[in-house]
Amino acid sequence: MRLPRTFATSLGITDFAQTSPWQAAAASASMFSLGAFMPLLLVWFAPEPLLWWISLSSLVFLALLGWLSAALGKAPVIRAVLRVVLWGAFAMLATSLVGKIFGVVA
């Protein structure tokens, strides 16, 4: 399905500047891997209690990756960072609550 010319132009989509789905998938996979690796790297060096270090560092790393993705994509940085950090915090909270319900919280 093709977008009407006015929508495509307003989104910056031209015949000369189209994104590759393979490139988008590779970028997404690499950022996901990097985002997962950074808190794990911290576990090796963090003092006790690990839960708070990992939670806070994960939010900091999410903010850094949100900033990087916005900067590379020429998108509004503050909005991207807030979106990534707030949804990341929500996901961590939801995961913690589900773990508490089933009695598997660290």
Sum up the structure in keywords.
mainly alpha; 75% helix; 106 residues
Concise overview:
This protein has 106 residues and is mainly α. The protein has 4 helices and no strands.
Write the layout of secondary structure elements.
Blueprint: H1 5-10, H2 21-45, H3 50-73, H4 77-101
Shape summary: elongated
Could you spell the SSE succession in H and E letters? Answer: HHHH
| Helix content bin | over 70%
Radius of gyration: 18 Å
What's the pLDDT, averaged over the residues? 81
The helix count comes to 4
The SS-based structural class is: mainly alpha
Low-confidence stretches: none
The N- and C-terminal alpha carbons lie at a distance of 48 Å
Instruction: Report the count of strand segments.
Output: 0
In this structure, how is the largest beta sheet organized?
Answer: none
Strand content: under 5%
Account of the protein in words:
The protein has 106 residues and is mostly helical. The chain has a domain at 30-101. 75% of the residues lie in helices and 0% in strands. It has four helices and no strands. It has helices at 5-10, 21-45, 50-73, 77-101. Helix 2 (21-45) packs antiparallel against helix 3 and helix 3 packs antiparallel against helix 4. The mean pLDDT is 81.
